[in-house]
Fold:
Amino acid sequence: MERLPDEVSKPLFLSIDVLSRSNFQIWNHYSTWKKIHIFYMIPCVIVFFIGNALYTINMFSRDVSLSEVAYQISIFLIIIQATVKGILLIPKKKKIAELIEKLGATWTKGNLNEQQIRSKKFIFKRMDFCLKIYYWGSMLACWNIELAPALVTIVKLAMGENTILLLPFGVALPFDPRKDWITYILVYVYEMYSAFRYTYVYIGIEILMVTLCALLSAEFAILRDDFRQIEPESEETNNTALKNLVQKHQQLLMYTQLLDAIFNKILFFDLLFVTGIMCLFGFGATVAGGVVELVNDFFSVIALLLPVLIFCYFSEQVKEECVGIAEAAYDNKWYQGSESYKRIIRFVIIRAQEPCCLTSMGYAPITLNTFSRVVSTTWSYFSLIRTVFSED
Structure:
């Protein structure tokens, strides 16, 4: 990170910091504390996963409310999704480090005109705003889910009501976690700690993906203006300036393809899981037995919908800036250039008309249309579930 320009390293800091909380290090720089942390973190998250799975399975043999079923299945699916995303990203660490280092090495550092500076600032401000909203919104949703049971328990006990000691998650354990206050508090802290490891993986990957998209969008925006402003050269100069821009264009296209190779499978599982999970949380909200359950389900839906909107938007931005290269090259005064100059411009236009963006499994482009389809599909499933259970 020290070798990277500030404009690259500072935006990446949040994602790297969040991922490091689950001991995911892109450059494998593990401190002594991080090495110790691995030894108790891995058993905790594995036991939490198995306990949650067993509890979910056993739930169907007991008489439980529809809201509890919807909530428990949603939480378990989020845990599976975070696990799959983490497993898919681990083998990609070298590629991520390679992409970041290459992007830093070729980053445009100076000699920018006012339009380029404005474009870069706009993209960075939009990225910073979106990621802060997503990060703090997700953390608020997580803290709400994890602290609400404790607050409800304390309030009921303070009012003299008989109540069981509530835990944030359903986890099957070989002992009674409510047998005394010490056991209850230790299990509560354990569940919170384990759940946050999955949370950090889940949101850290999304933040990293969006940040890299924004950085590429900024570089494409600068290159776009360079193509528009460059003056045709004489035959004697061998079109050196134009060829440098073409080389930069090829580099950015390669970086975009590398970014897609890293994240396209993760995006597929994101879209596969998020529709069903939001549908279940939405259904849980309609059959919620209290205000706390309703608030938990509402915040969860928002926290799941935000990253889909954000990564669809920034993938769309990469696509628009990439396609915009063709328009910028056409706006150039190519008609005043030599035949070789015109030939190079023609090749740039042809290549730029093939849009580059993130994809799902390398096939379906991720754009704002993807977000609208996700919302539409979720609403269709939600309506279907409500209809089926209302008839029952």
Q: What stands out?
A: The chain has ten helices and two strands. The beta strands are 359-360, 364-365.
